[in-house]
Amino acid sequence: MIQKSDGKINRLFIIEAMLVGFWLGLAQVSLGFAILTGSGAMITHFFILTGCWLGGGIIGAFFLHRALTLLFPTALIGVVIGQTILREMPFMFTTQLIGFAAGGITGTFAGAYLTNRALVWEEVRRLLFYENNGFIIGWAAATCMLLSYSKALSICTNALGGVLVIVFYTLRLPTKT
Amino acid sequence: MKSDDESKPTDFSEPPTYHDLALLGVSGAAILLSQYITVREIGSSFFSTELVIFIAVFITLTAPSIGYAIAHKVSSFFILLWGLASIAFNFILPFGLRAFVGIMTSYGYEGGALGIIIVLGVCMTTSFYAIFLPRLSRPTSFSITYTAELGGALLGIITLVLSPSWRFTLAIYWSLSAAIVYLALRSRILTGLVAVTVFALTATYPILDREAAIIYYKGYYGIESPYIVETNYSPYQRIDIVSIKGFNALFLDGVAFYYGKQLYMYNEYLADLPASLRPPGKALVIGSGSFSSSAYLHRRGYDVTVVDIDAKVASMGFHHFSAIHKLKKNDVHIVTTDGRKFLNDSPPSTYDAILMDVPAPFHIRTALLFTSSFYQLVKSRLKPGGFASLCLSGMISDNYAKSIAAAARAAFPSTIIAACPRIGLTFCYAGDPLPFTSDDIRNEVKRRHIVCNVIDESKLDKVLYGVRPLDEGNLSTVVAISRGILENAFRTAMNE
After folding, report:
1. Potential cystine with B237: which of A16, B63, B253, B457 (Cβ 3.0-4.6 Å)?
2. Domains in chain A, ordered, with CATH?
3. Mapping DSSP to helix (H, G, I), strand (E, B) and coil, where does residue B232 land?
4. What are the pLDDT digits (tens) for A56-98?
5. Which of residues 312-371 of B touch A (CB under 8 A)?
6. B472 touching A, CB under 8 A?
7. ipTM of this model?
C-alpha cells in the first residue's frame, strides 16, 4: 500500500497521479487542436473524439488495466502520430480516423491507469482528486500554449510524455498485475 | 457536523450492487451533459470569446475535484441539502443564467456576475454528481464502478448526437436529476417532486427562455423593448433573431452579427463594392449570416455557392432576412460543411470571387479562417483575375487587424485595403492579380457617397512593416483582443 505508517500518502504516488493527469490534459487539448486544424471544425468530430476517449477509457478500465506499462508508450506514440499525420495530410478521411484512434488509445491508457492505481491507493477518491487536479492544470497550460504558441503545445506534450514513460519504467512504482 | 466516515465506515468487502452501478451510470451521463450545457450557456450569456469558453470549461473541470475532496467527509444530511441545491441550480441554469447576467450587467456588474457564476458553477454544476464514484468504489471493484460511470458518460455523448432539439437535451438532462434523486436518496416523495418539476420546466421552457432573453438583451445591450422572433440552439451556437425597432438582428451566442438597420454596410463593402468592379462569374461565400453578401453577388449576375458549417444559421438567416436579401430558394447553392474543408476539396482555380462572411475571430475555430495558410488555400482556388474579400474585424490601426492584413498580404501578391470609420471596420481585397486597382475602388466609393480610406500595396507594406502574420502558431492577439469589436460596432449602429 502507498500509505506510510503515519497515514500520509507517499508523495511519489501523488506526483505520479498529478503528472499523468497533467499529460492527459496536454494530450487531450493537443489532439483536439490537431483534429480542429487538420480535419475541420464540425461538431461531430468533437463528439467522436470524446466518444473514442470515453470508449477507450471503458476498455482500459475493464479489460486492459494490467497492461499499463505497455499502454503509456502506445498512447504517446498514438498522440505523436495523430498530431503529425493530421498536420501533414489534412482533411483526409484516413487521417481523421487515425486522430480519433489516437484519442481512443489515450483514453484507454487513462482508464487503465486509474483502475490499476486504484488497487494500490487505499482511497480511490484521493487518486481521482490528484489525477483530476493534474488534468485541470495540464488542460489550462495546454490552452495557454495553444493561444500563445501552438507548436509549444505539441512539443511539450510529446517531450513530457517521453520523460514520463522513461520515469515510469525507471522508478517501477508498485503495480498490481 | 458528523461525517459518514465517523458514523458509518465504508464497507470495503461488499461488491457494488446493480443499484449502485445504475446510479454511477446516471451520474456519468449527468456529469457529461452538465459540462456541455454549462459551457454552452456561459459561452452564450457573456460576450462569447475563447476566454469565456476557457473559464466555462475550467468551472466544469474543477467541479468534480470538489466532489472528490469531500466525498467521504460529509454527512448524509449535507449530501441531501447539497444534492437538492445542485439539482435546483442545474434546473435554473439554462435560462436563469442569461437573465442574471442581463440584470447584473444593466447595473454595471458584468465582472461581478462572472465571479458569482464561477463560484456557484464550481460548487453546483458537476461536483455533486462526482461524489458517487469515490463513495461507491473500493479498490478491487473500481474497474466495474468506473466502467459504469464512463458508460453513462458515453450514453450522454450519444444522447447529444441523437438529440433532435436543445429542449429535448435539457429534458433528458433534467430527467437524470430525478433518476439520481431516486437512486441516491431513495425517497419517492422527493423523486415525485423533482419529476413534476422536470415536467413543468420542459413544458414551460420556451416561455422561460424567451423572458430571460428579453431581460438579457435589455440589460446587456441596453436595447429598448427587444422582441425575440426566434431562438434556436444549433450544435455550434445559440442563434437569436431579435427584432429591434422594427428591424431584425442576428445574434450568434449573444453577439450581434447582423443588424438590418445599419450593419448592411458591412455586406456592401464586403460583397457589392468589389463585385461591381469586374464581370460576374463563379462565387463562393464562406458563412451565410443574413445572406446579404450572397444576394449582392446574385444580383450582380454571379453563380453563388454559400458554405456554412451551421445549417441552422443558414436556414434561419434565409428565412428571417428574406425581406432584405430577396433571394428565392434556388438562387444560391447552400452547402453545410467546414469552409476550409470545402475549399480544400475544391479543384484549383475554381472561383472568380471568394468572400469570407464570417464572425470576427473571437474563437479559435473562426480564427483559423483568418490565417496566412488559409489565405494561401483561398488564393489557390481563385482563377487568375479573381478576387478574395474579407473583413479585418477592426480599423487598420488595431494590432489584430494588422496581423490579419499581414496574413492576407503574405498570401496574395495584390492587396488593397478599404478602411471605413463609420462602421469601425476595414476590408481587404486580394488577388493574383486583382481585377481592379485602388483608383477603381476610390472612384466607386466616391460614386456611392461613402466615406472610406483606400490604401494600396505600397502604403500598406509600410503600415504592416514588422507585423507578424496571423497563423496557427500565433492566435493569441486575435482571440484575446478582438472582444468588443462587434459590440462597439453594434452600439454605434444603435446610437445612429
Report:
1. B253
2. 17-171 (1.20.1250)
3. strand
4. 999 999 988 788 888 999 999 999 999 999 999 999 999 999 9
5. 337-338, 340-341, 344-345, 364-365, 368
6. yes
7. 0.92
